[in-house]
């Protein structure tokens, strides 16, 4: 007949295979705590403290004393660490009759990820055979994959926004292009908000290219673009639609006298000499303007045609002039505004 005999072991052996364990005596005091439990409690002294002062028993609820814990030999108990986090843990209880003690081995279970972050745990804080280590690797791998995916998503979004901006932007001046203008006009008509359409052509621009070269012409276009930005509001749109052709959408701006002042100011500023490598580049501008308030039912094609007619009237008037369509054929220049 085989008689079971107690197998001697050391606390060091328990610490290695069960780093989350506690040895508790019959009065409920901690006799020994594994290294990971010590780390969880910030390496404070645990030996001699009552286990129920360190851990709150959640289930079974009828346990009040350590003697009651002993009755649940090899059974699971649900506990919560008494700290600022209240981290839940699962405990396996085993009676150690030869030592008059109870062995309580803990596991973080589903709260492992939070516990690792809160208590700064690593793989070495768990038993080598503990599946928690593998879970940690999976959590880290998932976290790394999510970080990479997030970075990729942000990069793709940034690239998409850049591509969308480039698709709607004139490469030289940074102004809106024809596609952006068409989209804005579609929205403008849907909003049913009055606006004016201003067509602007540069005068004598070809002579700048012929005399000083295309680099000078590009420099002049950039200066003109900056002038147009400065003389319009953020709710307006300025677009370059051709080599030296621009269109401005003036939102909620239809009063003829105000439009005259804007056109005259633009011509005056554009006529100022533009420096390029020590040379003066001189140009001017012709402008045609039409307002949506001229029509019972504004039409994009009709308004564009009327703005073009007004622009040609300005050119025929000697250039450096503006024409307000529907305003008694009003034509002026930068000195009459």
From TrEMBL:
Which SMART domains does the protein's record reference? Answer: GGDEF
Q: Which residues cross the membrane?
A: none
Q: Which Pfam families match?
A: GGDEF
- Domain of life, per UniProt, equals Bacteria
User: What residue range is the signal peptide?
Assistant: none
Q: Please provide, alphabetically and separated by semicolons, the GO molecular function terms listed in this UniProt record.
A: catalytic activity
Q: Which residues form the GGDEF domain?
A: 193-327
The record's InterPro entries line, in alphabetical order, gives: DGC-Regulatory_Protein, GGDEF_dom, HNOB_dom_associated_sf, Nucleotide_cyclase, Rev_trsase/Diguanyl_cyclase
Q: Do you know which PANTHER family this protein is assigned to?
A: DIGUANYLATE CYCLASE DGCT-RELATED, GGDEF DOMAIN-CONTAINING PROTEIN
The name on file for this protein is Putative signaling protein
Native organism:
Aliiroseovarius pelagivivens
Per the UniProt record, the lineage of the source organism begins with: Bacteria, Pseudomonadati, Pseudomonadota, Alphaproteobacteria, Rhodobacterales
């Amino acid at each position: 007949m085989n008689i079971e005999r107690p197998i001697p072991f050391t606390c060091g052996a328990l610490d290695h295979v069960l780093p989350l364990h506690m040895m508790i005596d019959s009065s409920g005091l901690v006799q020994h705590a594994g290294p990971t439990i010590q780390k969880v409690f910030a390496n404070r002294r645990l030996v001699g403290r009552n286990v129920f002062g360190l851990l709150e028993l959640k289930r079974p609820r009828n346990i009040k004393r350590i003697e009651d814990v002993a009755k649940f030999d090899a059974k699971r108990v649900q506990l919560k660490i008494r700290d600022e986090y209240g981290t839940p843990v699962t405990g396996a209880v085993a009676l150690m009759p030869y030592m008059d003690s109870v062995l309580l081995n803990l596991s973080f279970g589903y709260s492992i990820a939070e516990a690792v972050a809160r208590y700064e745990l690593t793989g070495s804080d768990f038993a080598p055979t503990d599946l928690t280590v593998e879970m940690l690797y999976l959590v880290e791998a998932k976290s790394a994959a999510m970080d990479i995916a997030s970075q990729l998503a942000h990069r793709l979004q940034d690239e998409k926004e850049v591509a969308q901006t480039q698709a709607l932007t004139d490469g030289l001046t940074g102004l809106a292009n024809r596609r952006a203008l068409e989209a804005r006009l579609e929205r403008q008509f849907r909003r049913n908000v009055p606006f004016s359409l201003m067509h602007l052509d540069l005068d004598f621009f070809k002579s700048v290219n012929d005399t000083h070269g295309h680099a000078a012409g590009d420099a002049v276009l950039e200066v003109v673009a900056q002038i147009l930005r400065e003389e319009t509001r953020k709710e307006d749109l300025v677009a370059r639609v051709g080599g030296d052709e621009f269109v401005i959408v003036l939102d909620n701006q239809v009063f003829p006298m105000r439009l005259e002042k804007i056109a005259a100011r633009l011509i005056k500023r554009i006529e100022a000499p533009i420096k390029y490598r020590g040379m003066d580049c001189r140009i001017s501008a012709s402008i045609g303007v039409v307002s949506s308030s001229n029509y019972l039912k504004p039409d994009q094609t009709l308004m564009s045609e009327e703005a073009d007619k007004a622009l040609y009237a300005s050119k025929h008037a000697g250039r450096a002039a503006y024409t307000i369509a529907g305003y008694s054929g009003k034509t002026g220049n930068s000195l009459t505004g």
